[in-house]
Amino acid sequence: MSDKYASFVQSGPGRLLVKRLGLPDPPRLRRHTPGDPLVAAPVLLHAAPGGRLAAEAAKLLTAAGVEIREFTAAATDDEMTTPTRYGALVFDATGITDSTALRALYDFFHPHARSLVHSGRVIVLGTPPEECATPRETTAQRALEGLTRSIGKEFGRGITAQLVYVSAGAEQAMESTLRFLLSGRSAYVSAQVIRIHPAQVTAPADWDRPLDGKVVLVTGAARGIGAALAKVLARDGAHVVALDVPAAGEDLARVANDIGGSALQLDLTAADAPARLADHLAQRHGRVDVVVHNAGITRDKTIARMDAARWDSVIDVNLSSTERINDMLLERDLIPAGGRIIGVSSIAGIAGNRGQTNYATSKAGVVGLVQSMAPVLAERGITVNAVAPGFIETKMTAQIPLMIRQAGRLMNSMSQGGLPVDVAETIAWFASPASSGLRGNVVRVCGQSLLGA
């Protein structure tokens, strides 16, 4: 599905009309194409005094083929008349231990706020507030969230801004996250707070195919986001086991055939579904390296008008079946060390939504599952994270009344809906073997939606 308004305003006549009438102007987002460089221009990197991450970030990015420029406080006359254009601004704020030192952020971003190319990137690196040595440092590090969320709303032109909290000892676990956030894969991810923990990281032999040799299960894979997921994960080298209900068998088979994967028809709410799924994975593959819980349904009504069947079915499909599947796969040791469990929540689970009490409850439960299971699974060397999509252009959202649909598209910093591939790329980042330091994260793929902001 597509946003016809966004397509129109990016045309010649559309550009003219938007300018004359002052209409919303959705930017054309830079999305990933295989073979693309991470960024199309140099990256400006700087650190507050005492920062502990800039040197490692520079090392990782240089190895990835990124041109790094060092920040200088005094601009030359040439720079003032013809400013350098940057693909990204990266600031190491870990040296900020007091609110007065926050001035370093202004000194870096103020002169370069207009220097980013279209669809440029802003990344601020910090220390998790809960790990800071003093209350003043905690205060200063927490303040970074306000900066990045505001930049995400101010800079426009498809520019994204993120805050990455890096625990002490996790410096070498940053690479997959830096690569994702700088690239076109993160086109519809903005104003997010990401936490990286210490972990043993294995860099893939080929960053374009990080999932080579991996077995990946995707539920709800017959269409929409699930089909995009299957395609992206297969592109990254995985053998994808595409699962959906028998009624979607024809579409499911088409998806599996197109990507060279395998199809499994199964109703996840059936009493014997966990055992049947575990048997299938054990017999055919011996394990499953990545489990993506994408299957979900809506049965919308206000709670006053909702019958019990609508409530029960949504909770069961979207949340309870996920718990049962996880329990069975873990009990039978089918997810090895280095495995990934990835859930699909929703901004409805974060902000709530009128007429979706059942859906919002189930998706908030996915957030709870990720947060509660992260420390438990870490002991087994398994990570669990989730994405929370906002307004994504699918057949489902195409059924929403036109005016409500258009409002959903425009109520974010990108002034447009996202695409299924945006969700898929974010999940592929979590799935990467280089993402071992990511656990307990819930990342919104919503273009910085105003809902729940």
How do you describe this structure in short?
The chain has 2 domains: 31-196, NAD(P)-binding Rossmann-like Domain (Rossmann fold); 215-445, NAD(P)-binding Rossmann-like Domain (Rossmann fold). 38% of the residues lie in helices and 16% in strands.
Description:
This protein is of the alpha/beta class and 453 residues long. The chain folds into two domains: 31-196, 3-Layer(aba) Sandwich (Rossmann fold); 215-445, 3-Layer(aba) Sandwich (Rossmann fold). Helices cover 38% and strands 16% of the residues. The strands form two sheets. The chain has a seven-stranded parallel sheet, sandwiched between helices. The protein is globular and about 65 Å long. It starts with a helix and ends in an 8-residue tail after the last strand.
Number of domains: 2
Distance separating the two termini: 26 Å
Approximate helicity band:
25-40%
Q: State the major sheet.
A: 7 strands, parallel
Principal-axis shape = globular
CATH level 1 name of the largest domain: Alpha Beta
Portion of residues in beta strands equals 15-25%
Count the helices. How many? 15
Which consecutive residue ranges, at least 5 long each, have pLDDT under 50?
none
How would you spell out the order of helices and strands? HHEHEHEHEHEHEEHEHEHEHEHHEHHE
CATH homologous superfamily of the largest domain? NAD(P)-binding Rossmann-like Domain
DSSP strand count: 13
Average pLDDT figure: 93
Secondary structural class: alpha/beta
Stated plainly, the CATH topology of the largest domain is called Rossmann fold
Question: At CATH's second level, what is the architecture of the largest domain?
Answer: 3-Layer(aba) Sandwich
Q: Strands across the major sheet, in which order?
A: 9-8-7-10-11-12-13
Radius of gyration from the alpha-carbon trace, in angstroms = 22 Å
